[in-house]
Amino acid sequence: MTTSQWLTLSDLGRSFGLSARHCGHALDHEGWRDSNGHPTPEAIAAGAAQLHNNHHHRPSNRWNVDICSTVICPHGNHPINRSEQVAQWVTLLEAMEEGSASVSTSLEQMAEDLPLDLIEEVNLQLSDRGCRFQVQRFVESSPASNQPNLSASA
Q: 49 by DSSP, 3-state: which?
């Protein structure tokens, strides 16, 4: 039996190479999100979404990858495989290290969006390509924070 993966909207979009906004538009078109971006009763009934409300953090709804892909794929979007994701991040971070006057985001800020599960592979490929930049993962010592933070070093 295969179990489906449940992701946040951002992670669902990322798996298709989309922003959360564009992924949300596809779900909106299906009637699966309300005007506040939360799953509709129809999405929950279809098994496409789960409501997650944590009293300490903002709501973090989860979307079923398999079911949502039936809505996202007909719009011409297909899941990006892991090696392609790694290659795209390596290319982006390497180009940002070289710098550009037209880019106002810092390399460190961009690295904050790198999915945690790709850090090791991205760093290895950056190193193999002679790039001095490495994404560093650290956890803030604050007891109120359960979220990992990222730091980058060159």
A: strand
Which is nearest to 92 in space by CA: 65, 129, 147, 58? 129
CA separation for the pair 51, 44 (Å, rounded): 8
- 0.70 exceeded by pTM: no
pLDDT tens-digit map of 37-55: 999 999 999 999 998 765 5
Q: Which pLDDT value is given to residue 59?
A: 61
73, 74, 76, 78 alpha-carbon torsion, rounded to 10°: 10
User: Which residues lie closer than 8 Å to 19 by C-beta, 6 or more apart?
Assistant: 13
CA distance 65 to 16: 10
Closest among 81, 105, 71 to 17, alpha carbons compared: 81
The edge-to-edge listing of strands for the beta sheet with 49-50 is: 6-7, 62-64, 49-50
Q: Give the 3-state secondary structure of residue 146.
A: coil
Full DSSP string of 52-76? ---TTS----EEEHHHHHHHHGGGT
The least confident of 30-34, 45-49, 122-126, 145-149 is 145-149
- Proportion of the chain above pLDDT 70, given as a percent: 81
Determine what percent of the chain falls in helix, strand and coil, rounding each to the nearest 5: 45, 10, 45
